[in-house]
Amino acid sequence: MKVKISNYPNRLICNIHSNHMNKKYGYVDWPDNQDYEDHVLEAIDDGLQRVYDVFNWIWFDRRTQKVSVKIDRWDTWSMDHTLAPIILPMLVQLRATKHGAPMVDMKDVPKELRATKKQLDAYGGNGEVDPKHFDRWNWILDEMIWAFEQKCRDHWEEDYYGPYIESEDKRELFGRFEWIDDEGRQKHQERMSNGFRLFGTYFENLWD
Questions:
Q1: Contact present, 25 and 31 (Cβ < 8 Å)
Q2: CA 14, 19, 23 angle in degrees (round to 5)?
Q3: CA 107, CA 114: separation in Å to the nearest integer?
Q4: Is the pLDDT of residue 105 over 90?
Q5: Cα-to-chain-centroid distance, residue 50
Q6: In this model, does residue 175 exceed pLDDT 70?
Q7: N or C: which end of the chain has fewer CB within 10 A?
Q8: Rounded CA gap, 53 and 12, in Å?
Q9: Where does residue 26 rank: exposed (0-12), middle (13-18), buried (19+ CB within 10 A)?
Q10: Closest Cα partner for 63 from 10, 5, 3, 4?
Q11: Between 133-151 and 79-97, two packed helices, what is the crossing angle to 10 degrees?
Q12: How far apart are CA 157 and CA 177, in angstroms?
């Protein structure tokens, strides 16, 4: 497999006025009545942006993101194992750099992270999110990451096997494992499967 994906196309944007306003007033509350300096910088910003837009129309708006994907025949022999080491580092980076969080179904997270309808109505009415909103998304991402980490381990089942004992009987070709924790192995697999389910459920929410 060979994958090459270029950066998203950029546009020229003048940020003189917005940078000035953010530095002077903060990132949220800009006053309705701006002073003379603010208006002058806004006019300069508008003028420069009109010039930038000419270059954007000529060049930048005509560019597209370049994507090249070559799939080899063996990539689909175990497609889940092929994709896991690609998806895993992307999820890890998203977890570290994300700037927001989508709405999460309360049934998908533990009880201690759920919000009641009363809490959701109280915060939602004010255009805010409840205190555990981002914690729920972090938990969802952590479960996805854990599941793909396990998929990248070829023999995670060995965590539930005891030490391998060579056979002392020459008539037996193979030895045996001393013990097997079937209940632990099943719970491990169920958690992995749930992580993959969450990946599918929230696939369209994997944005930064």
A1: yes
A2: 170
A3: 8
A4: yes
A5: 36
A6: no
A7: C
A8: 7
A9: exposed
A10: 10
A11: 150
A12: 12
